[in-house]
């Protein structure tokens, strides 16, 4: 059985991975074609973002049929072929289940609109207030009210995301049974992993005005959330001990995560939390430009590491996904120290306690999109916020500057396979522009290069298999207050791992508070790292050290 603590998950956004039929969109066959590349990297799971039938208003997170593959992504035969080929290489598939909401094109919603009371109870319809306005002042995460009026029904329906993504009513047991059956459908196809989209939002509490915020406090980690997850576990994936699950937890609390991902809680294997990725926000406001707060980043990463460990709960550890800007652009350096900083950021994540996730292209050091015009953007959240920010009075230029940093499209540009046209992603017109830096940053030039970012990720993944301390070690911060250094220690049965990183382009001096005797360098982004009590760390220098004693 695959131990998820020893595993690494690779996330694929199929639309941007590889197009094999020239229509400009990637598809499942493209993933199958690149399995050897993933095998070479050494990953254990592939998480595929949704490829089910969908109008694609949110690139597949608006599902219209959970059991059918959108023809744009291929057929069920293509899926089965992918599963079989992956299995042959010892790689398992993790599917993305979006159960907080469905597309408004889903048959359930269509029946609800047509007046069927059974299906109206699948969603959250509420009457208008006496003045005709929305039932509460809640805001959609994509901007604007979270309620949309449905004239056919004469009521508003709730959508925490786009208005074409209607929230499901989990209070209704029939909805919960439908969801269980969908999970079982994919289990019957041999799927051994599931990621549950914004799953901590499924239990809504009171429907009341929020005088302190956008409404999230009423539905985040809501009143019946643990009960719902335990039931889903019991009635579906929990019946197969080989299945690994991860919940995407929006604005969650650590206390809830102890239970979501606690070893004996009967809920999920692990959680994604996002607090460490809000250190360049202003509070919860992402559409601003503020420098990343490094002290806060450490504080958040470390407190989650320690807290989750103390409660025997398990983290997914990551910088990147399809909703986040590229990490090398965000916390590293796109220029002179591109390679060094990308490797440093990789080292930080892979040494932590948790299951590392690698998002397609991260292993190549892919950078933000660099878009400068609205026509280049595709993401619904970015397009909505362009308008919202303009309406607030910001100049076009200021809005472009904000999108350039925070847009989700930064991570959705096509995978850069080669230096050639369209980065080898498609022979047609890509659905979103390929980053022109594919001439420099691409897989073809990195796979064989022992000094590449790809090689560094490969080494980190291999080390996790070789040294148990990566998977099972406890966690302790080292010199947490240093203004440029991020350092921590892991210990397990005579293995002691020390991870030391200079997070900045300026060199710095670091007094190591631990005795370094007996430690040797396991991996570094400099060929001649020399640990010392008074250490001169070079730009973005990152070193993993190990000490092994007899009881290892
Ligand atoms: C989280 C997903 O990762 C994101 O891409 C999506 O827009 C929302 N959930 C809504 O499903």
Write up this protein:
The chain has an eight-stranded parallel sheet. It has 17 helices and 22 strands. Helix content is about 30%, strand content about 20%. Strand 8 and strand 9 (about 155-160) form a beta hairpin. The chain folds into four domains: about 5-100 and about 315-370 and about 405-465, TIM Barrel, CATH 3.20.20; about 105-165, Oligo-1,6-glucosidase, domain 2; about 180-315, no CATH class; about 475-550, Sandwich (Immunoglobulin-like), CATH 2.60.40.1180. The model has no long low-confidence stretch (mean pLDDT about 95). The chain is α/β, with parallel strands linked by helices and about 550 residues long. The structure holds 1-deoxynojirimycin.
Q: What's the structural blueprint in terms of helices and strands?
A:
Elements: E1 9-12, H1 28-33, H2 35-41, E2 45-48, E3 52-53, E4 65-69, H3 76-88, E5 92-97, E6 101-103, H4 107-113, H5 117-120, E7 125-126, E8 147-150, E9 155-158, E10 165-167, H6 173-188, E11 193-196, H7 216-219, H8 225-235, E12 244-248, H9 254-260, E13 270-272, H10 294-310, E14 316-317, H11 327-330, H12 338-351, E15 355-359, H13 380-391, H14 396-406, H15 443-446, H16 453-466, H17 468-472, E16 474-478, E17 485-492, E18 495-502, E19 508-511, E20 520-524, E21 534-537, E22 542-548
Parallel strand pairs: 1-2, 1-15, 2-5, 5-11, 11-12, 12-13, 14-15
Antiparallel strand pairs: 3-4, 6-10, 7-9, 8-9, 16-17, 17-18, 18-22, 19-21, 20-22
Bound molecules: 1-deoxynojirimycin.
Residues 58, 61, 98, 161, 197-198, 248, 322-323 line the site of 1-deoxynojirimycin.
